[in-house]
Structure formats: structure tokens, C-alpha cells
Amino acid sequence: MDNLDYQILTELKQNARQTASDISKSIHLSVSTVIERIKKMEKSGLIESYTVITDDSKLGNDITVLMEVGMEHPRYNDEFIDHINKDPNIIACYYLTGEFDFMLKICCKSSDHLEQIHNRIKDYPGVRLTRTHYVLRTVKNIHSSGFDAETIAQIK
């Protein structure tokens, strides 16, 4: 990747629906070069997908929590992951180091709904312990990694 690829990625992160023509104007490259570079990043797997970001509260999901889950033994991890992947209210799952094994991000409609999800998770084989944190307000929420300071300096 070079400086131009970083500039294209920066533009796509701001709005993945913008046209190659708009990107080309913004970073002063030809449209065909922008298209070629985007296709190259897609083919290499650097760009994995394009997605829609929704406002969960407008979908009726007024509660967001982060739930730490501790497992009895790693032999339960694969089955736990299978359950997690099937639950549409669990929108992110991270495998961790430390006291807890997993961190789940859960969006749901109400406290009653959260209680149902929580009980279901506690019933999964191998779950030893959970700790739940209510999200009061989202301060920052980006959907892919940013660039380090050195890379940002190169882009500018």
C-alpha cells in the first residue's frame, strides 16, 4: 500500500457509497486509477466488504450492553462461538486475554429482552461467569481500524 491507497481508504471509510469519480476529484487521481486501486484492495482482501451502519435505537433496540463471559474450559469455546454467531442481538464478539474469555456487544429492545438473552447465554455449556455493563452513550464507534499517526502524516 502506498499513500494513494491510504487516501482512497480514508475516503471510503467516510462514505463507502461515494463514486470513484468523487474520490478521484478529492484526491486528484484519474477515475480509472481509483477504480483499479479499489479492485486491487478488494482482491487482496484488504477491503473485506461494504456495509450499512444503522441507528439501533431507531430499530427499536434501545439498550446496548457489553457482556464479559468467562468459560470453565477452552474446550467449550467452539460450541459457545456457534451459539453466539446464531444470535442476531449479539452484534460483536471478541476473544480476550485476562479474567474473562469473551466480550459480547449486545443490542436489545428492553431490560426484559436483555434478561432473556442473559439467561440464554448463562445456559450455554461451559459458561462459568458473566459481567454485564450497560452502555450509557456511545462516544466513538468506528467500524474498522484507523491509521497510525505516521500514516496519517503521510496522507496529509
Automatic annotation (TrEMBL):
<dbReference type="InterPro" id="IPR019887">
    <property type="entry name" value="Tscrpt_reg_AsnC/Lrp_C"/>
</dbReference>
<keyword id="KW-0804">Transcription</keyword>
<keyword id="KW-0238">DNA-binding</keyword>
<dbReference type="InterPro" id="IPR011008">
    <property type="entry name" value="Dimeric_a/b-barrel"/>
</dbReference>
<dbReference type="InterPro" id="IPR019888">
    <property type="entry name" value="Tscrpt_reg_AsnC-like"/>
</dbReference>
<feature type="domain" description="HTH asnC-type">
    <location>
        <begin position="1"/>
        <end position="62"/>
    </location>
</feature>
<dbReference type="Pfam" id="PF13412">
    <property type="entry name" value="HTH_24"/>
</dbReference>
<keyword id="KW-0805">Transcription regulation</keyword>
<protein>
    <submittedName>
        <fullName>Lrp/AsnC family transcriptional regulator</fullName>
    </submittedName>
</protein>
<dbReference type="InterPro" id="IPR036390">
    <property type="entry name" value="WH_DNA-bd_sf"/>
</dbReference>
<dbReference type="GO" id="GO:0043200">
    <property type="term" value="P:response to amino acid"/>
</dbReference>
<dbReference type="Pfam" id="PF01037">
    <property type="entry name" value="AsnC_trans_reg"/>
</dbReference>
<dbReference type="InterPro" id="IPR011991">
    <property type="entry name" value="ArsR-like_HTH"/>
</dbReference>
<dbReference type="InterPro" id="IPR000485">
    <property type="entry name" value="AsnC-type_HTH_dom"/>
</dbReference>
<dbReference type="GO" id="GO:0043565">
    <property type="term" value="F:sequence-specific DNA binding"/>
</dbReference>
<dbReference type="GO" id="GO:0005829">
    <property type="term" value="C:cytosol"/>
</dbReference>
<dbReference type="InterPro" id="IPR036388">
    <property type="entry name" value="WH-like_DNA-bd_sf"/>
</dbReference>
